[in-house]
Amino acid sequence: MKTIRLFVTAIILLIAFGAALYTQRVDVMQWYREVTAPVLPEAVGYEEVGKVDEVDQVEKVDEVDESTEEAIEEIPSDSSVPADLSVNEDTTDETQLTAVNLAVPFTPQAPQGNWDVPYQEACEEASVYMVQQFYQGSPEGLINADQADTDILQIVAFEKELFGFYEDTTAEQVATFAELMFGYTTQLIIDPTIDDIKAQLALGHPVIVPAAGRELHNPYFTAPGPVYHMLVIRGFTQDDQFIVNDPGTYRGEAYLYDFDTLMNAMHDWNNGGEITQGRKVVIVLSP
């Protein structure tokens, strides 16, 4: 009888522990993410990117010169340059940026915690707003909730006046309102590669990505996740991960998505059709 009571007690404790773990699963995931997250590269503002580039260009010139001299010494004077000699390729690989982290300020699309309309549909507005704040020189970190709330609602009102709606805007429509409202130069990159995105980030340009939200498999989204979503890529790591500001969750600041996950989830709004059939495209805004 005593053995049975101990067994029942153990079962009850296990059930209680499991229930407690389930109710705190988000906090547990956040703790695990924090303890396992790689050290991110130092975040830099837009004005600092040019200084980094200048130093990098000096290093590149020096390395190219040294490599070229070594290659020339190895080539006999009476021979032609072999077709497979790739001095430029070697030096380019050695000097490519291996990590970038732009200091893009963060706000969730529901700054005050109210996920009702219009905030549940405001990922596009929040994404453009974060980029705008970056170019304005706002510091990295969480944007004041009152300020973000007011500014996101102003963007929503602008879209309503411009388009007659604000929900589920395509990449082209987002580029349009960003250009008209903030005066940015806008570029749509169709079928971008990872290197295309890296190149923009290296120039100091955050990259806005429309996505099939459920394909992102973000554990912090309210299940099953948004059909259509938009977020900002602010950098990349040496471990093949994009650093993003994802406005779909309060825990979206400097969130990490594997390259493959984000590239596979990338899809523009498809006019209500199957979202995974939407085209691959990203939006680049620049001052």
Question: Which descriptors would you attach to this protein?
Answer:
287 residues; alpha+beta; Cathepsin B, Chain A; seven-stranded antiparallel sheet; 7 strands; 46% helix; 13% strand; globular
β-strand percent reads 5-15%
CATH topology of the domain at 100-286: Cathepsin B, Chain A
Mean pLDDT: 82
Low-pLDDT stretches are 52-95
The whole-angstrom Rg is 24 Å
What is the overall number of helices? 9
The CATH class of the domain at 100-286, by name, is Alpha Beta
What percent of the residues sit in helical stretches (DSSP H or I)? 40-55%
**Structural class assignment:** alpha+beta
Biggest β-sheet strands, sense, barrel: 7 strands, antiparallel
- Work out the number of β strands: 7
CATH superfamily of the domain at 100-286: Cysteine proteinases
Please provide a written account of the structure.
The protein is α+β, with helices and mostly antiparallel strands and 287 residues long. It has a domain at 100-286: Cathepsin B, Chain A (Alpha-Beta Complex). The protein has helices spanning 2-23, 25-36, 46-74, 87-95, 123-135, 145-163, 171-182, 194-202, 259-265; strands spanning 100-101, 185-190, 207-212, 228-236, 241-245, 255-258, 281-286. Strands 1, 2, 3, 4, 5, 6 and 7 form a seven-stranded antiparallel sheet that branches. A hairpin with a 4-residue loop joins strand 4 and strand 5 (241-245). It is globular and about 80 Å long.
